[in-house]
Design brief:
single chain; about 1000 residues; alpha/beta; seven-stranded parallel β-sheet
Length: about 1000
């Protein structure tokens, strides 16, 4: 019969591995533990005597027979007063000597004595530790370093019918820290509730208020060779790992949160102290990166896809600190990197990174913090002085090219927060150029010819051998994956490390914002004023203008405002113990202004005891009132408090925004989001994720959407629910740049000799850029004279596509074709020189129409469920020249004829008019028409087309029910949509005209 079915067998297995298999721990009897001093005196003394014999002898000279007792008491006192972490990281002062209580692993082999000291550390484990002087309670396992306790574990074997939940319950109910020194905060650095299947951990025991975090490899731990949780003792608790955790990871973090104090009726700062022990995915990411750097050295990019709720700031902190002291090889004389530069898009940098590093290593000048109060010159100085860790913003980075290029032999690690927004376009190219090894200008080198100069320029944009980049993001776009992703054996690319949205939700670190999704749809009818002569307008732009016109009408604003406020007052205001907040996302600043005014009126009418705030940039003039509005004069906060802080006051419960606070705004009390703006892609995830932060009493969220199709929202989230990747065949094809160039050249706007003349001036060191102007002006004149308006737009589109594609490709590959670089710099300048196309919207159309009817209908409320799956993405494709296509005027006739011949249904003349109107609406649907491109699969395009046609048909339910019934009959509906789609697909995707 198999053994190992009891808890004691689980304990046997762990202890046997640590003490017998790897022989890194000593098994100590519980009677060796001093309950009052909370240490193992024998281990403390044995370590000091063995590692520091001369210091011990000097102390003995002063203290004589009481030496051992005094040392043990001094150690216990230090742990009691300074706590464990500070005690281990500091030296113990006694009788004129400074004793080390632990030796951490040296970074390299240049101090042999340090290696000897490191080997003398004594790791011990006690089973069934009787720790209390008040009762007979025992801890299953307690782990010690040189006699000082650092970790405990309560074990549960699933074969006994118990698991980690029972271990958590045991800690919370039976391990009361009150009056128990060993269990006090900061004594033991971590407590593990360890089952045979899952592990949870905490750094602070607080009875029933204890908060345990998951410490698992993923949503499921798996080990084909034994216990699923074996990674804890086979990796985490191993000697090298445990000492590394204490030296480089575990630290105290002081959080400052702002909250409303009902006693003082003001916003107050609440400080709290946490003992940070890295979550498993944080530790894994940092250690995997360091291991990979030992193989790669400098010059490689890494993508870390960590979801919201992953503790990204702490992961970046630990990585920056470890990189600052990282040696690629144990025999190296110097650290791999000279400077670590942390780049963020946030102008107001979170001081958390700086403060956390200071906790680990309080060396003066270790971190240079360049925030919005400092200048670009401060950043230049930091790089010149070789500061170990520099924290800056992407806005300041491009101006320091000269500073970095002065030290071409230096190596840099660049850590990028939210990579998809930081590392795009010319900013990224500038960053690589700024830190480029090739930037050293050696004065006595032979003069290079033009092509050599251009080849050098090209080399500055690709991956540089002296720069490693570490990109963190929750929602990596295809560009980000191609720039920073790791090449897989099958040729595709994916993130180096992943902590998925799915895992963050299921582990409880963020909320599922799609759990309650309420969808509304607007219906309206416009009529042309009878006293206005009929005129022709461009369809797509007119549809856009009229849609905006409808949404800005007082009737529409009021209907939505009342729905929002009625829902908030009836539902949201009672959530999160009556503290819930709501946010309205509007499509423009003018919409935000009008909603704010309407909210004020309706809230007064409803006698609500709170108000709404509005957030938008700049000044908005509303022609409806003739007044100018700013968020300052609309909120009337008196300049004494910020909008985020004001929202914490009971007086303000709702926030109306227009392109502000949709990213990077973390208000835990935000419960409900009202969406009146078209979202898509990453903006969907980032906007709705303002709701996902946890708070005490926050059990749910709600989205009420007036605009977006729930299926589209679901698809956007599904894309980023798991790991994002690009298969090899879907990576951007470098040769596509030649197809793009052929499209540009087909317009014959410029000649090769003009590109060459431009390059000869551009790539020389002389200060003669004014000579570029005549070249560009002549081409611009030719552009106007020789091209029709449609071809002008098509040329600019093709040229912009080339520039965008080349700019991207130059970051991931090294081009050897210098002609492409010449064309790139030429077209970049030419596009700016070409006359601005008059694309003004037909705003006067709103004077020709009237809003006849308007209604908002609740479609349904549902949970948008996400599936456990990874998100496949595709690289860039050249968009080419976009031009208008001729419409098929006989298309309607063909469809009607086939329908009548096949099913014998007769469409009346009135039906034909409605059919024509529906056709025009579909053609005017810019979003749908843009879907018809080679980048989308035919099935996806067809699904989108069918969905939009069915949506159009819904408009006929109220007033043209007979027509609706005819066109939605299953066979007829399928046939006419199939034929219509095939015609459109052939014309717009395959390019087959009639």
């Amino acid at each position: 019969m198999a053994g190992g079915t009891k808890e004691i067998h689980f304990e046997d297995h762990i202890v046997n591995y640590l003490t017998q298999e790897v022989k890194e721990y000593n098994l100590v009897n519980t009677n060796k533990y001093d309950k009052k001093l909370c240490i193992i005196p024998e281990d403390v003394l044995a370590f000091i005597k063995e590692s520091q014999p001369k210091k011990y002898q000097n102390i003995q000279t002063h203290l004589g027979a009481s030496t051992d007792t005094k040392i043990v008491e001094a150690v216990a006192k230090s742990v009691r007063n300074n706590k464990t972490l500070k005690t281990l990281r500091s030296k113990l002062r006694i009788s004129g000597e400074r004793l080390d209580l632990v030796y951490f692993q040296p970074a390299n082999n240049k101090t042999p004595e340090h290696e000897t000291w490191y080997r003398q550390n004594r790791l011990s484990v006690i089973r069934q530790l009787a720790y209390s002087t008040k009762n007979n309670n025992e801890l299953d396992l307690c782990f010690f370093i040189n006699g000082i306790p650092v970790a405990t574990a309560e074990l549960k074997n699933a074969l006994t019918g118990q698991n980690h939940h029972n271990a958590i319950k045991q800690y919370m109910q039976d391990r009361d820290p009150n009056g128990e020194p060993l269990l006090e905060f900061q004594r033991c650095l971590v407590h593990f509730a360890m089952g045979t299947e899952k592990v949870f951990m905490t750094t602070k025991l607080a009875g029933k208020s204890t908060f345990f975090l998951p410490f698992n490899q993923g949503l499921r731990n798996y080990n084909p060779n034994g216990f699923a949780t074996a990674y804890v003792w086979e990796d985490i608790l191993r000697k090298e790992s445990l000492l590394d955790l204490i030296q480089n990871f575990i630290n105290l973090q002081e959080d400052v949160d702002k909250a409303y104090d009902p006693k003082t009726k003001a916003i107050v700062e609440k400080k709290s102290t946490k003992l940070l022990f890295p979550r498993f995915h944080q530790l894994k990411a940092v250690r995997r990166l360091l291991d990979q750097l030992k193989i790669d050295g400098t010059g490689t990019n890494y993508l870390i896809q960590h979801s919201a709720g992953s503790g990204k700031s702490n992961t970046i902190t630990w990585l920056a600190y470890r990189l600052a002291n990282f040696y690629q090889n144990y025999t190296d004389n110097a650290a791999l990197f000279d400077s670590i530069i942390v780049v963020t898009d946030r102008r107001v940098l979170n001081t958390q990174i700086q403060n956390n590093i200071r906790q680990i290593d309080n060396v003066p000048g270790m971190v240079e913090y360049v925030d919005e109060k400092k200048t670009s010159q401060d950043l230049k100085t930091a790089i010149k002085e070789g500061k170990r860790i520099i924290i800056t913003t992407i806005q300041k980075f491009p101006v320091i090219s000269d500073a970095a290029s002065e030290f071409p032999d230096r190596k840099y690690a660049v850590i990028i927060d939210e990579a998809h927004s930081s590392q795009s376009g010319e900013t990224s190219r500038h960053m690589r150029k700024a830190l480029s090894l090739e930037d050293a200008a050696i004065l006595d080198t032979p003069e290079k010819d033009l092509d050599e100069v251009i080849a050098d320029e090209i080399s500055k944009k690709g991956q540089q051998p002296n720069i490693s980049q570490f990109a963190f993001t929750a929602t990596p776009k295809p560009k980000t994956i191609e720039l920073f992703g790791t090449v897989q054996p099958d040729g595709g690319k994916e993130p180096f490390d992943i902590y998925s949205m799915e895992q963050a939700i299921k582990e409880g670190f963020i909320l599922d914002v799609l759990e309650n999704y309420m969808s509304f749809k607007r219906y309206y009818r416009l009529i042309k004023r009878s006293d206005i002569e009929d005129k022709e307008y461009e369809k797509k732009k007119t549809v856009r203008v009229l849609g905006n016109y409808v949404d800005l009408q007082d009737h529409g604003i009021e209907k939505k405002a009342r729905i929002i406020l009625e829902h908030f007052s009836a539902e949201t205001q009672n959530k999160i113990q009556g503290k819930a907040r709501g946010m309205l996302v509007t499509k423009s600043r003018l919409h935000a202004v009008r909603f704010k005014r309407k909210f004020d009126d309706v809230m007064r009418e409803m006698k609500l005891p709170y108000e709404a705030l509005v957030a938008f940039s700049g000044t908005v003039k509303d022609d409806e009132t003739g007044e100018e509005y700013t968020e300052t004069n609309m909120n009337d906060l008196g300049g004494k408090i910020s909008i985020p802080d004001a929202l914490k006051l009971p007086k303000y419960r709702l926030l109306i925004v227009a392109n502000k606070y949709q990213t990077g705004f973390d208000e835990p009390m935000m419960h409900t989001m009202f969406v009146d703006k078209k979202l898509g892609g990453t903006s969907t995830v980032q906007t709705l994720s303002r709701l996902n932060r946890n708070a005490r009493g926050k059990e749910s969220t709600m989205v009420l959407d007036f605009v977006n199709d729930p299926e589209d929202v679901q698809a956007d989230f599904q894309k980023y629910y798991g790991k994002n990747f690009i298969q090899e065949e879907n990576l951007t094809d470098p040769n596509a740049i030649y197809d793009s160039l052929n499209q540009v050249e087909s317009f014959e706007v410029y000649y090769p000799q003009e590109v060459e003349a431009f390059a000869n001036i551009f790539f020389t060191e002389e200060d003669n850029f004014e000579k570029l102007q005549p070249i560009l002006e002549e081409i611009a004149a030719r552009f106007v004279d020789n091209l029709q308006e449609e071809d002008q737009a098509a040329f600019k589109s093709a040229a912009s596509s080339f520039v965008k594609l080349y700019r991207f490709l130059s970051q991931i590959i090294t081009f050897t074709d210098v002609e492409l670089e010449k064309v790139y710099v030429f077209l970049t300048a030419l596009i700016k020189k070409l006359p601005y196309a008059k694309t003004s919207l037909p705003l006067d159309v709103v004077n020709d129409v009237e809003l006849d009817s308007y209604k908002i209908q609740h479609k349904y409320t549902t949970q948008l469920k996400l599936e456990s799956a990874d998100g496949e993405q595709e690289g860039m494709q050249p968009s080419g020249a976009s031009g208008a296509k001729d419409e098929e005027f006989d298309f309607l006739t063909k469809i009607i004829k086939v329908l009548n011949e096949t099913y014998g249904i007769e469409l009346t003349d009135e039906d034909k008019v409605e059919f024509k109107r529906m056709k025009e609406n579909i053609y005017s649907n810019a979003e749908l028409m843009s879907f018809f491109n080679k980048g989308n699969s035919k099935d996806n395009i067809k699904d989108k087309f069918s969905e939009e046609v069915d949506s159009e048909l819904l408009n006929f339910i109220d007033k043209k029910l007979d027509f609706y019934n005819k066109m939605t009959e299953d066979k007829i509906n399928t046939l006419f949509k199939t034929m219509w789609f095939n015609e459109l697909y052939d014309a717009r995707v395959r390019g087959i005209g009639k």
